[in-house]
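Handout, page 2. Input:
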Amino acid sequence: MFKARRVTTAETHQSVVVNGLQSLCRVPCKDKKLFIFSWYPGFKGFNLRRGQPLRTNEISPSPSPEFVYRCQMPQPAQLRVIIADHDVRKVVLPSGIPETLDDLHSVIRDTFSIAKDFSLHYKDEDFDEFFTLLSTTDLKDKDTIKVVFLPNQEPPIILTLTDVTNMNNQPCEEPDVDDTASVSTDDTLILSSEDSPGHRSQRWPAQFSIPSFSGLTEIQIQSGNERFNKYMTLLTTKDLIPLLPDILGKLAEAIYEYTAYPSSLQISEVAEALTQKHPCLKEPGSFNGSYGWAQRLKYKMNNFRSKLRGLGCPEVEVNSLKRKQTHDQYPAKNLKKPKKAEVNYLPPHAQGETTASLEKERVELLSEMMKRDNSKVVAQKMAKTFSLRREEIVKEAPAISECMKRWPALFSEAQISEEFKRITTVNLQSTFLAKLDQCTPKLMALTQSKGGAAGLKIRNIKDMLLEDNTVERQREIAIRCLMVYLGEKEEDLFKQYWDVEELDADLAMQVMKIAIIGDGCATIVVEGTKILQGIDVARSCALLMGVIYALNLRYPKQLKFTFEAFQKLCLELDGQKASSKVMNLKYGIF
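Output:
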């Protein structure tokens, strides 16, 4: 076996040593890779830059020390980059995978505008797990890497000690002030609306955490738990009654951190979590030991909302009888509350802000919209005026055309996604498309078994893949098959037009549609108004969900199962409770 190593690298040639004999490749090789091909059977050569073995079909019948040199341009590469749980991107490297890890860090940082410090992990094929990336030689085309953000490290505090005996003789000096301490970051401006105590940053948890109670209550409950573990005895009614105000009050406050209007299922989850953590609080005769606690929590949340209404909390004050019209002055009529798993349905204004001050910000926002390259300032003001915008949309329910006049910045792809995240804390497009891609193979297999007219229609839809098998078309086919499988008509959501003129002539007749012009681009139409244009069909479905949440719209009755599947399967919002059709679909594809 011959050994080869690189001796020199010049702009116009490569010099290598083979078994002690120096040879020269006089071919322009700047930014290229030099390959040596041995004519021995079996092992055929090395990539001298990376040390990777190469193979060729040209096998010499007899050993020969002859070598062939050639230069080859680097092949482009693609990497799958996981930035967050619901944020998966693709990076294209036209010059191939960088030689050093620092170069790869720079590419990832510049491509995705990452400001924080991070390290990279790669997915190992042998273990199917992520390992720390120490060299780019571990990567190849279409590998998966993961961005792992490093925790912020606080700067060290330096103390200067001074002899107190000499302080009287020293002149007083003003301390140096760190300039960075007074600089407000962009994140602080964008998230200024979250300063309000009523602004929520997380959804209802999968496992509810029971808060700690007052010291005396905790002591009595722990004593009761010990007796339960030893003798299986429950806390007596006489001992329980004095503890009820503290227990129910703390639970109500913990529930309000997620929602002011918990569903029966959510209240039952809290009651079960309470009795699981403190088994001495279980109730005899109840099928799960927590039914009575669920009833107490329902009444407690009603009383808690009454207190919040008296304090002027907008989320519950909007449903007071004096705020309703005369024909709607009934407690349970036209109730304005989260119905699609909204986290910030009607948030209060940020501290120090009033309706008048936020209206002034809205007027300034209109002028900022006229400036070029001003998206950053627009995004900051949109976040700051979020509570005012929700107040108008929820309380007044204005027409789409009126919303576009008052909030033109809202009707862009970026701001619809941001508004959806402010309302639900979920990334709209990345979550929707990732879940759709995940369930597409099983969904296509599930719909294949459909018979009758629906099965025939699904097969005709799948035939569209014969003409175009791109990722965008596969997503569109999956959505169309999903609609037919749920027993709804795809024509109720999608409508084909030959050109823009035909769409404009039919615009006033459409309430909620995704108009497809020609064979490609889609336009979202709501109440006869074009919202977004020039996007593919799958992303238009995701953005239509964003429009529905941002404008507090109802799902169309003829498409209720389709939009329910979008919400509970593709966006994972309130997925525990769904209709029988959607639940059967969920069990079939997940």
